[in-house]
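for the recovery benchmark. tokens below, seq after
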């Protein structure tokens, strides 16, 4: 009937589905609960909407389908759609914030693999030896 302390504090990984929009909504709720400014919330919402629109065009619905290669394709897609370097960088920053949050939310204690997400205006390319996002440890280069 009662949960022990460990079960009470642990969020079951399978309690949320893999649907990207579900996780993005949870991310935005988390940011709002943390007291992010209205402009920050709008920024994340707008930039992540660009990403979800791209995901829909590529028939990617689950977060487990996001790979470093997919992120590279997304960055190239933004360039093809005439987003300037600052706009592409902003989209990348929002996506990176979301993915870092997701990693921490799903398994904050897993440090088995490091995924590098460069943060510079000239280098957006993520690199890893394993598929993202499961069982990865994100780190800034």
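predicted aa per position
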């Amino acid at each position: 009937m009662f949960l022990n302390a460990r079960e009470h504090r642990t969020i079951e990984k399978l309690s949320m589905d893999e649907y990207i929009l579900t996780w993005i909504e949870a991310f935005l709720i988390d940011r709002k609960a943390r007291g992010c400014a209205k402009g920050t919330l709008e920024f994340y919402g707008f930039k992540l909407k660009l990403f979800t629109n791209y995901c829909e065009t590529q028939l990617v619905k689950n977060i487990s389908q996001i790979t470093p290669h997919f992120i590279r394709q997304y960055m190239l897609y933004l360039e093809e759609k005439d987003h300037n370097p600052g706009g592409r960088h902003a989209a990348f920053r929002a996506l990176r914030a979301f993915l870092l949050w997701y990693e921490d939310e799903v398994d904050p204690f897993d440090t088995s693999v490091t995924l590098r997400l460069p943060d510079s205006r000239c280098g957006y390319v993520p690199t890893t030896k394993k598929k993202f996002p499961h069982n990865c440890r994100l780190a800034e280069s």
